[in-house]
Design goal:
It is globular and about 40 Å long. The longest helix has 14 residues, at 80-93. By secondary structure, it is mainly alpha-helical. The mean pLDDT is 91. It has six helices and two strands, in the order ααααααββ. It has a two-stranded antiparallel ribbon. β1 and β2 form a beta hairpin. α5 runs antiparallel to α6 (80-93).
Length: 117
Amino acid sequence: MTEKPESLQLPPDKVAKLVRYETLEGFVEGQNNFYFHFLPEGSFVGDIYKTQPHYRRFKALHPELDSSLKAKLSQRKVGSDAYKELFKAYAIMSELVSVDDPHVREDGKVNDQFLLR
């Protein structure tokens, strides 16, 4: 993506309303497959997640956080530091999911678990 960062931000009416976590503990309990976004390159599932528009927006706007999480998850050790960064990444990425992105809607409604499946 070669868009300018400000063009990657979504207008409020286009942001999908997804599950929000108030605490790190709540996120750790409910995050399910969110970490798939940061699996190392060449991992089949991770590569699929990386093609999605919300991930490309996130990576363009927050390349350092993206790189840090990829490095931590490539070591296959998801400790408290990684969970803190995943929690931060989820809060950011959840604001970058458009109601118009592919697969966000199921039966005409936004799937509020979209980033977690």
